[in-house]
UniProtKB/TrEMBL annotation:
Job of this protein: May mediate accelerated ATP-independent bidirectional transbilayer migration of phospholipids upon binding calcium ions that results in a loss of phospholipid asymmetry in the plasma membrane.
Family membership noted in the UniProt record: Belongs to the phospholipid scramblase family.
Organism: Cirrhinus molitorella
Lineage: Eukaryota, Metazoa, Chordata, Craniata, Vertebrata
Cell compartments where the protein resides: Membrane
Main location as per UniProt: membrane
Identification of the protein by name: Phospholipid scramblase
């Protein structure tokens, strides 16, 4: 296992991330929302919460988007994800512009909100999901790659160093259990943004994992 890329100063409002090497993302769905979506086909506002490896809730995530965009544009819609801590203070903002069906996704990471600290960019490929995480100067920091999108079951995304001279370039993982619903690209974009901020707050950890839990 190789060390993580160079670490940066961690803002005080994100110090929670300095002592965890695992994050779990749960999607919040109420019975009413499920019924409305199943019966009327109306997509609800997406919301999530993030827990650390011992079950402590560290973040809440709420999508800000237009109802029509959620209905008709799906993963290509424009949206903002507001990430708040346990005191309901917004600590991270994720901004996704609209993109056509054949375009590549890009998500801007802001922390504090209004200050861009990096971007997650999808590298278009016929069958291999690949993303590049870049800093505020658009300099590549690391890549995120997965097996072929046709693979069934739990999808694993590897966080890979750009240093191709080392034998094991992997320094972290993102897991997504198999689901009939939801886009893998959407999931990776959002979780990678948390990982982007997570990496800036690590203090000596060389391995990181993020999971999506249904």
């Amino acid at each position: 296992m190789i060390p993580s890329p160079e670490l940066h100063h961690c803002p005080s409002h994100l110090e929670t991330l300095t002592w965890t090497d695992q994050l779990f993302v749960y999607k919040e769905e109420t019975t009413e929302e499920c019924l409305v979506e199943a019966c009327c086909g109306i997509a609800p506002v997406n919301s999530y919460f993030v827990k650390d490896g011992i079950g402590n809730k560290v973040f809440s995530i709420l999508e800000d988007s237009e109802c029509c965009d959620r209905q008709f544009c799906a993963g290509g819609r424009s949206f903002i994800m507001n990430v708040t801590d346990d005191s309901n203070q917004e600590v991270i903002r994720l901004v996704h512009p609209s993109v056509c069906c054949c375009g590549s996704h890009e998500l801007e990471v802001q922390s504090p909100p209004g200050t861009a600290i990096g971007y997650v960019r999808q590298n278009w490929h016929v069958c291999l999901p690949k993303f590049t995480v870049v800093n505020e100067q658009s300099e590549p920091e690391f890549t995120i790659e997965s097996p072929c999108i046709g693979c069934i079951g739990c999808t694993k995304y590897e966080l890979l160093s750009l240093n191709e001279t080392v034998i094991d370039r992997s320094f972290g993982k993102i897991f997504k259990p198999y689901s009939c619903f939801g886009s893998n690209a959407d999931f990776v974009l959002r979780t990678a943004c948390i990982m982007t901020r997570h990496k800036g707050c690590q203090s000596g950890l060389s391995h990181e994992e993020m999971y999506s839990v249904p």
